[in-house]
């Protein structure tokens, strides 16, 4: 059957286009516009050219935040992905306990980020928090407001607490989709538990794990609320990640031009990494499809 | 538009990007193509190559700005060479 060619249907997309332009494209263009100007408030702008970019590229501030951000993302990925897979492997395969586990695992994902931050902010306090008080009682020196190592551990454990479930649920879904025939074949070959994992489960999970890595990477790379509530970027600037630093610059110092330049570079890094992930994922799909 | 503080250089920047996008859309409609595999071992279309060019150019310009004191126009020249290379080999 021949389809009728009717290009008028494109006009139906127009409202969406206008909406996206108004809410996303034009604001992004405004950021580009601000990044080459300076303002002292009162809506008066002065031409600055590429000064802001140059200043940021030659200052330690942005590189420091970027380094901490990359370290944070790398650490949480290195913990959450293996841990999530391990949990998924050990979850019941069916019946009441499978549903029970799924519900319990989903709980942290349902808690608003601000609340997670507040929970850990209180949980870790030495005077009233259960964790902080217990550690203090055991003689462990732990104070996330003064000790950078304690602050980092708190922020990382909090993120693991909040988001490992997501990896586990995705990995579990991947595991559930493996046909029983593979396991039966492995059993006939007397494959060890590790071989089953390495040659059957891991390859079959790879697609879903790529999505998990991408999601967790992007989320952690843009993290703001939780560390901000717990440490406020401190002590000093040891847990100041890119978003926190950006907000400090844009809303704290009201350096709109500098902040615009900062956010553009931040955006470019995210765009690059997303593109790499996307390309790798689609190419893996194509290879699997052949 | 005064209250949004638009400037001519940003306007030119966006006009260039927009006209690139429009040109490539028209090209894609007039001369449909099959994706090819280049040195990156990934399938790319003209649009993909344009994206790689623009994103790469942004990083070339930033690197130039951060590492050298030479005029920024030189970086733009480098981007053109990069663009030709991307469209030829990627």
UniProtKB/TrEMBL annotation, chain A:
<feature type="domain" description="ABC transmembrane type-1">
    <location>
        <begin position="66"/>
        <end position="277"/>
    </location>
</feature>
<protein>
    <submittedName>
        <fullName>Sugar ABC transporter permease</fullName>
    </submittedName>
</protein>
<dbReference type="Pfam" id="PF00528">
    <property type="entry name" value="BPD_transp_1"/>
</dbReference>
<feature type="transmembrane region" description="Helical">
    <location>
        <begin position="149"/>
        <end position="175"/>
    </location>
</feature>
<dbReference type="InterPro" id="IPR052730">
    <property type="entry name" value="Sugar_ABC_transporter"/>
</dbReference>
<feature type="transmembrane region" description="Helical">
    <location>
        <begin position="96"/>
        <end position="123"/>
    </location>
</feature>
<feature type="transmembrane region" description="Helical">
    <location>
        <begin position="196"/>
        <end position="218"/>
    </location>
</feature>
<keyword id="KW-0472">Membrane</keyword>
<feature type="transmembrane region" description="Helical">
    <location>
        <begin position="259"/>
        <end position="278"/>
    </location>
</feature>
<keyword id="KW-1133">Transmembrane helix</keyword>
<comment type="similarity">
    <text>Belongs to the binding-protein-dependent transport system permease family.</text>
</comment>
<dbReference type="InterPro" id="IPR035906">
    <property type="entry name" value="MetI-like_sf"/>
</dbReference>
<feature type="transmembrane region" description="Helical">
    <location>
        <begin position="70"/>
        <end position="89"/>
    </location>
</feature>
<dbReference type="InterPro" id="IPR000515">
    <property type="entry name" value="MetI-like"/>
</dbReference>
<keyword id="KW-0812">Transmembrane</keyword>
<feature type="transmembrane region" description="Helical">
    <location>
        <begin position="12"/>
        <end position="36"/>
    </location>
</feature>
<keyword id="KW-0813">Transport</keyword>
TrEMBL record, chain B:
<keyword id="KW-0472">Membrane</keyword>
<feature type="transmembrane region" description="Helical">
    <location>
        <begin position="6"/>
        <end position="29"/>
    </location>
</feature>
<keyword id="KW-0812">Transmembrane</keyword>
<feature type="transmembrane region" description="Helical">
    <location>
        <begin position="73"/>
        <end position="89"/>
    </location>
</feature>
<dbReference type="Pfam" id="PF09928">
    <property type="entry name" value="DUF2160"/>
</dbReference>
<keyword id="KW-1133">Transmembrane helix</keyword>
<dbReference type="InterPro" id="IPR018678">
    <property type="entry name" value="DUF2160_TM"/>
</dbReference>
<feature type="transmembrane region" description="Helical">
    <location>
        <begin position="50"/>
        <end position="67"/>
    </location>
</feature>
<protein>
    <submittedName>
        <fullName>DUF2160 domain-containing protein</fullName>
    </submittedName>
</protein>
């Amino acid at each position: 059957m021949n389809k009728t060619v009717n290009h008028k249907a494109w006009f139906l997309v127009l409202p969406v286009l206008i909406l996206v332009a108004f809410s996303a494209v034009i604001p992004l263009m405004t950021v580009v516009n601000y990044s080459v100007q300076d303002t002292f408030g009162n809506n008066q702008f002065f031409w600055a050219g590429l000064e802001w970019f140059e200043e940021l590229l030659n200052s330690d501030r942005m590189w420091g935040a970027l380094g901490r951000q990359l370290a944070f993302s790398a650490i949480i990925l290195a913990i959450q992905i293996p841990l999530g897979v391990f949990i998924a492997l050990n979850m019941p395969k069916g019946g009441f306990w499978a549903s029970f586990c799924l519900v319990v695992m989903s709980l942290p994902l349902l808690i608003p980020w601000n609340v997670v931050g507040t929970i850990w902010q209180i949980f870790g306090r030495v005077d009233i928090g259960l964790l902080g008080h217990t550690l203090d009682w055991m003689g462990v020196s732990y104070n996330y407001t003064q000790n950078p190592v304690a602050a980092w551990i708190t922020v990382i454990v909090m993120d693991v607490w909040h988001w490992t479930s997501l990896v586990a649920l995705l990995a579990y879904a991947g595991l559930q989709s493996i046909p029983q025939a593979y396991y039966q074949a492995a059993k006939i070959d007397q494959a060890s538990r590790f071989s089953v994992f390495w040659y059957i489960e891991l390859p079959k999970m790879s697609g879903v794990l790529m999505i998990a890595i991408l999601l967790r990477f992007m989320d952690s790379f843009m993290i703001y609320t939780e560390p901000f509530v717990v440490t406020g970027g401190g002590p000093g600037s040891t847990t100041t990640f890119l978003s926190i630093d950006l907000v400090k610059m844009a809303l704290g110092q009201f350096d709109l031009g500098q902040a615009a330049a900062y956010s553009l570079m931040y955006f470019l890094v995210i765009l690059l990494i997303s593109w790499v992930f996307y390309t790798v994922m689609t190419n893996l799909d194509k290879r699997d499809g052949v | 538009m005064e209250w949004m503080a638009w400037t001519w250089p940003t306007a030119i920047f966006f006009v260039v990007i927009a006209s690139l996008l429009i040109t490539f859309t028209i090209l894609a409609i007039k001369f449909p193509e099959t994706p090819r595999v280049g040195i990156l071992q990934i399938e790319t279309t003209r649009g993909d190559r344009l994206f790689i060019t623009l994103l790469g150019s942004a990083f070339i310009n930033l690197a130039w700005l951060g590492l050298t004191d030479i005029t920024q126009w030189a970086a733009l020249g480098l981007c053109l060479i990069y663009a030709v290379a991307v469209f030829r080999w990627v």
